[in-house]
């Protein structure tokens, strides 16, 4: 597996700068998750690294080699996209064998069979190995697509929301499996998702993209606990970070325009009164919807809380984030 280095990568589509001077080092063996709202440049980053789209400026190196002008095959990357791309006339087994049967690889037959059955087991599609790809459900097809990437050991895996079409249970299981496979292989993986849980649990590093610019690149915990901006802070955390005018509370530093409060930054039972609007029991989390000086605040509380709508609850910020008028962290 290999390190991937993007240096000043820019990609334009007409007037749009899909990637704007992106510099990022993806360490060998890391699991990098790209986060950002739709249009931020996540897919464009994967396509640029894969060689599917040429870049307009900058350079991309994989394993120390400049990738300029090289095709996806020459770059030795394996890709999984949101839309499964299987050979419909082949069986699941043949689809999984296909990447290993490349004449360049010269993989022995029994090694291919062993690898295919191992991957099929992991992705729980062993019972479908002799089915045609067209006879599968959407979730099964997606698992085969992931399997087709995983049978190989490329320099880098590139995955674009590979679990998004799966149901919640399978997604939770495969999240753990994918992470395990990545760790066992020591694979370098660049992964796009909108799912925060995937980002928090699988990533060694998160890259936050905003209109084609990389605004923060750090371990997920660091982005959560030490975000550089309001935008980066809002990418992680459920419920979302509360952003309120800075002057609602005491202690705002001079240039502060906004205060950012995650649930653990809101001390309950001290400070000034908020009104409980609603107690929302989600099973694994109990959320409190509050109103404070006319502003809504969402936080979490004890599942056995006696609080009810209409009651008062004192709250006080505890080590909050402060942001200036441009959304930069102070
Ligand atoms: N082939 C294309 N032609 C024109 N514009 C494009 C093309 N591909 C991407 N773009 C534009 O580049 C920007 C970045 O798109 P990209 O698909 O990388 O975003 P994304 O972060 O992956 O979004 P999503 O979460 O919706 O997949 C967007 O403004 C998009 O409209």
From TrEMBL:
Under PROSITE patterns, the record lists:
ABC_TRANSPORTER_1, ABC_TRANSPORTER_2
Highest taxon of the lineage:
Bacteria
Q: Which UniProt keywords apply?
A: ATP-binding, Nucleotide-binding, Transport
Q: Which GO terms describe its molecular function?
A: ATP binding
- What are the residue boundaries of the ABC transporter domain, all occurrences included? 4-236
What does the similarity note say? Belongs to the ABC transporter superfamily.
Output this protein's name: ABC transporter ATP-binding protein
This protein's species is Jannaschia ovalis
> Which lineage do the record's taxonomy fields give for this organism?
Bacteria, Pseudomonadati, Pseudomonadota, Alphaproteobacteria, Rhodobacterales
């Amino acid at each position: 597996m290999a390190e991937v280095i993007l240096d000043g990568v820019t990609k334009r589509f007409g007037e749009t700068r899909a990637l704007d001077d992106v510099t990022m080092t993806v360490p060998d063996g890391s699991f990098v998750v790209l986060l950002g709202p739709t249009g931020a440049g996540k897919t464009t980053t994967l396509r640029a690294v894969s060689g599917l789209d040429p870049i307009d400026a900058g350079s991309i190196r994989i394993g120390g080699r400049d990738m300029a002008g090289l095709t996806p095959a020459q770059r030795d990357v394996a890709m999984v996209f949101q839309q499964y791309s299987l050979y419909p006339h082949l069986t699941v087994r043949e689809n999984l064998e296909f990447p290993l049967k490349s004449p360049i690889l010269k993989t022995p037959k029994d090694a291919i069979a062993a690898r295919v059955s191992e991957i099929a087991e992991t992705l729980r599609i062993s019972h479908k190995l002799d089915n045609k790809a067209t006879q599968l459900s959407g979730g099964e097809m997606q698992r085969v697509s992931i399997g087709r990437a995983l049978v190989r050991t490329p320099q880098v895996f590139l995955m674009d929301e590979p679990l998004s079409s799966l149901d919640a249970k399978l997604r939770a299981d495969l999240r753990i499996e994918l992470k395990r496979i990545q760790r066992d292989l020591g694979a370098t993986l660049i992964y796009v998702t909108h799912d925060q849980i995937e980002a928090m649990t699988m990533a060694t590093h998160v890259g936050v993209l905003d209109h084609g610019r990389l605004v923060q690149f750090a371990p997920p915990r660091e982005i959560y606990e030490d975000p550089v901006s309001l935008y980066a802070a809002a990418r992680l955390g459920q419920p979302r970070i509360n952003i309120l005018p800075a002057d609602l509370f005491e202690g705002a530093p001079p240039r502060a325009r906004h205060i950012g409060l995650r649930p653990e930054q809101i001390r309950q039972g001290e400070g000034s009164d908020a009104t409980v609007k609603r107690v929302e029991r989600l099973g694994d989390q109990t959320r409190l919807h509050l109103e404070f000086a006319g502003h809504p605040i969402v936080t979490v509380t004890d599942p056995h809380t006696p609080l009810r709508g209409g009651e008062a609850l004192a709250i006080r910020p505890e080590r909050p984030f402060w942001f200036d008028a441009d959304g930069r962290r102070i």
